[in-house]
Amino acid sequence: MAEAQARQRGGNADDGSASAQNGVRYEVDGEIATITLDRPEKRNAQTFATWSELARIGENLPEQVRVVVVKGEGPSFSAGIDLRTFTSEGVPGQGSFSSVAADGDTGFEQRIRQAQAGFLWLRRPEIVSIAAVQGHAIGAGFQLALACDLRIVAEDVSFCMKEPALGLVPDLTGTKPLVELVGLAKAIDICLTARTVHAEEAMRIGLAERVVAGGDLDQAVKDKAAQLLSTNRDAAVATKRLLQGAQARTLEEQSVAEGIEQAARIKALFGRSG
Ligand code: ACO
Asked: Where is this region: Disordered (predicted)?
């Protein structure tokens, strides 16, 4: 009962109806938020509404949340963009690529930026995001998994960056994390062939942190969340900030950044007030 009371559900942290309508389930349980793509009958295909919903969840994420789990209901994590977006009819109420293209370059780029907002917040230093990936993670589904800090995958996982095969580029923030994880050559290979990456390769090339049997996926994610919550919150935020900045800095600059973060930590832990 207490657990149920501690749990908030909803699209904007207090109302589940909007999320549910957009095929997304969202719940917060203490320091863990769980986002579930919830259109299993359509393999969790994503629409503009899905991305708006993800952005809305990010904007309204309660401050106490430290771990965000992103998962998909049913056999597939996500089969990517809803293919109706490519048709002239489009997704009811949301238009199609042809209607969005009619907005002109600026309008279209703005729509893409709005969609990307649903993915970008998953990298905030204040949280660690974990994608729990089973079955297909295609196109936008692959990119949603890439938007997370960590990927724990089931043995049946199959990643595929299908966009180039459809005449598109991956534009939902996935290209940078892919290159950072697997290197430029492997990223070119994966994207420009639109081939499928299965669990063993995903593990070997650094796409996945862990591969587990399908039935063990939820527990493996829970265990990882518990490990992540076992460290000091403020130190975790500062350390993630440092790690995220490391590649863009020289060793000397990174050492300076470490010193600045540590000084703040020591002041917070041992400084005298007043
Ligand atoms: N958009 C809309 N509907 C979809 C999508 C999608 N991306 N993927 C699956 N569905 C629907 C199917 O049309 C089918 O609906 P129906 O039952 O009303 O006929 C239902 O989901 C189940 O799909 P199946 O194909 O029967 O499921 P299966 O498990 O055999 O195959 C798979 C799954 C491999 C994911 C297949 O559905 C597929 O190839 N989907 C398209 C993937 C794709 O090209 N995505 C776009 C990538 S590019 C991007 O994301 C930008």
From this structure: 1-23
Cα gap 35→48, rounded to integer Å = 16
Residue 179: count of CB within 10 angstroms of its CB:
15
Q: What is the ipTM of this complex?
A: 0.98
Give the separation between CA 203 and CA 149, rounded to whole angstroms.
15
CA of 122 to the centre of ligand 1 (A): 25
- DSSP-derived secondary structure letter, 272: P
Nearest CA residue ID for atom 12, ligand 1: 42
Low-confidence ranges of the chain (pLDDT < 70): 1-21, 273-274
Strand partners of residue 70: 35, 131
Q: Is 133 exposed, middle or buried (0-12, 13-18, 19+ CB in 10 A)?
A: buried
* H-helix or E-strand spanning residue 119: helix 104-120
The pick from 43, 78, 86, 97 for probing ligand 1's pocket by mutation, whose C-beta has the most ligand atoms within 8 angstroms, reads 43
* CA atoms of 94 and 116, how far apart (whole Å): 16
In the three-class reduction of DSSP (H, G, I as helix; E, B as strand; rest coil), residue 273 is classed as coil
Ligand 1 centre from 162 Cα, in Å?
12
SS3 265: helix
Atom of ligand 1 nearest to the CA of 83: 1
The answer to whether the beta carbons of residues 216 and 235 sit under 8 Å apart is no
